[in-house]
Amino acid sequence: MGGHKAQPYKIPNPEIYKVEDVPQLKRVQEELAKRGLKDPWLRNHVWRYQSTQSPFMRGVVCLTRGWKVGIPAFLITIAVEQYFGIDYSGHGHHDEGHH
C-alpha cells in the first residue's frame, strides 16, 4: 500500500545542538545546577540562538514577507477600482454649486 516516499526534508542529528555553544543557555543551565535542577530539554532551544543568516538577509526576509499575496491583491484592487470608476478623493461631481 502506497510504498515508501523519501521525505522532502532532512531531520538534523540532535547532537549538533549543544547548550555549551550558547552563552545565554549556558547561564540558565548553571543557574539550574546551583539549585540542583537540570533541564533535559534545554538543548531544544539552541537553534533559536544560532543565526544561519546575516542581519541583512534577515532584514530582507522581514521586509518582503507577504509580498506574494500583497502585491497581486493591490493590483487587483487597483484594477477593480479603475473598472468600476471608484474614486476616493471626495471631489465628486454634484450640483450644489459651492466650493
By DSSP, the count of extended strands is 0
Overall 3D geometry?
elongated
Radius of gyration: 28 Å
> Approximately what portion of the residues adopt beta-strand conformation?
under 5%
Low-pLDDT ranges: none
Family: Belongs to the complex I NDUFB3 subunit family.
Keywords: Electron transport, Membrane, Mitochondrion, Mitochondrion inner membrane, Respiratory chain, Transmembrane, Transmembrane helix, Transport
Protein name: NADH dehydrogenase [ubiquinone] 1 beta subcomplex subunit 3
GO cellular component, one term: mitochondrial inner membrane
Explain what this protein looks like in three dimensions.
- It is found in: Mitochondrion inner membrane.
- Belongs to the complex I NDUFB3 subunit family.
- Pfam families: NDUF_B12.
- With 99 residues, the chain is mainly α.
- The protein has 2 domains: 14-50, no CATH class; 54-88, no CATH class.
- The chain contains 4 helices and no strands.
- It is elongated and about 85 Å long.
Describe what is shown at a glance.
Belongs to the complex I NDUFB3 subunit family. With 99 residues, the protein is mostly helical.
Describe the structure using short key phrases.
99 residues, 44% helix, elongated, 4 helices, mainly alpha, 2 domains
What secondary-structure arrangement, pairings included, does this model have?
Elements: H1 23-34, H2 46-49, H3 55-64, H4 67-84
